[in-house]
Amino acid sequence: xxxxxxxxxxxxxxxxxxxxxxxxxxxxxxxxxxxxxxxxxxxxxxxxxxxxxxxxxxxxxxxxxxxxxxxxxxxxxxxxxxxxxxxxxxxxxxxxxxxxxxxxxxxxxxxxxxxxxxxxxxxxxxxxxxxxxxxxxxxxxxxxxxxxxxxxxxxxxxxxxxxxxxxxxxxxxxxxxxxxxxxxxxxxxxxxxxxxxxxxxxxxxxxxxxxxxxxxxxxxxxxxxxxxxxxxxxxxxxxxxxxxxxxxxxxxxxxxxxxxxxxxxxxxxxxxxxxxxxxxxxxxxxxxxxxxxxxxxxxxxxxxxxxxxxxxxxxxxxxxxxxxxxxxxxxxxxxxxxxxxxxxxxxxxxxxxxxxxxxxxxxxxxxxxxxxxxxxxxxxxxxxxxxxxxxxxxxxxxxxxxxxxxxxxxxxxxxxxxxxxxxxxxxxxxxxxxxxxxxxxxx
Length: 443
Ligand SMILES: Cc1cc2nc3c(=O)[nH]c(=O)nc-3n(C[C@H](O)[C@H](O)[C@H](O)COP(=O)(O)OP(=O)(O)OC[C@H]3O[C@@H](n4cnc5c(N)ncnc54)[C@H](O)[C@@H]3O)c2cc1C
What we know:
By secondary structure, the chain is an alpha+beta fold. It has helices spanning 3-11, 21-26, 38-42, 56-68, 119-127, 145-151, 158-161, 228-240, 283-292, 317-327, 345-354, 384-397, 410-414, 419-428, and strands at 16-18, 49-52, 73-76, 93-96, 103-107, 110-114, 131-133, 172-176, 184-188, 204-214, 218-225, 246-252, 272-279, 296-301, 331-333, 336-337, 358-359, 361-367, 370-375, 378-380, 400-401.
């Protein structure tokens, strides 16, 4: 161990530290293995030690020690990010937040939590008073609130409430800086965007204030269709049906549903299908819509059984990719938005053009008040060149690609430098110690 790291750890007495190399290596990884492009870039990138603070004061001590000994610091929640976001590229300290689990307060429409509170735990508590998270990632059981805000984009609930970056979907954050004398800064209103989705490059989030939504009982259905475009149009029609309250519309071309082992006995083989969550009170109009599209409900789970067994949520978003890869590890994925395609013509063109090579998986979300298809396509990987060709073709046709095959903040969904985040980093992380090499603008 380097002398400076030894000194640093000595200064952290009373804080849990992990130095076992195997454990540290495990805690240096996330789900970047979804990408055959990222694997060779990230292999062997490990931290030197993991620290597990239990409160903000301990975070302040860790920040101060890292600055004093010039040691990089990478924050980690549950490590479910999928672009190597919490993999330390330059070693150093991994600050894991899972022991910071206090729900500070919760009231109608709002909650204040420590960063390491898991999304599922927050939801359970909120449901006791008739509320729930506006949106959750499909990793809700393990993902932390802080990790979702710093690394995620949206999820189940985005069809009603938009994406995390939309004004109102995060109310306040407390951040610890890596200055010579670390301090706590509270950001509210639009200022929260300075650290939201910044991969932990510009401040350690310790506490967040997040909005809640009224909790419904959610019925879960799988509806199968004879062809993919009917399933896609059904998804869009359900999205557009203002009188039917829904939380998730996840549409899959065949043979994706064949990868869902736990649903095999319900979903006919090679089905094109929609996995949906609909408010239990809206079951009847929902069934009428299914009839209009000649769909067949092949699986259902009533809201009364929520919490029992598996939820369809765990087959949506990037869980689709997870199940597909469990069946065939040569599969990878894309992330995209069809921003101006109300008739789904572009969806159809891409679906037909790539056929079996790029399997269409749509998640309907609200963008600027309009429900549109986002896609997390399952891709049969051959070479990196071919993958880039597929990405370029999509972009040339007008599909927005949030590239999941890069760990660079700006090269994913953002595309441009966010000067607000960069300027905030200049102030709170003047030595560039936080998650180094992830923010291109800083380099
Ligand atoms: C199977 C699968 C399904 C997924 N589904 C979704 C989905 O539906 N929607 C979605 O948006 N994402 C999804 N993701 C991505 C990921 O799950 C989410 O981003 C998740 O919310 C991350 O939470 P986490 O606690 O695991 O964060 P981590 O993976 O631990 O961290 C994510 C990023 O946030 C930073 N970070 C964590 N905590 C802090 C903090 N306190 N302060 C500053 N920075 C911090 C880390 O440094 C890292 O850059 C999925 C990933 C997988 C593998």
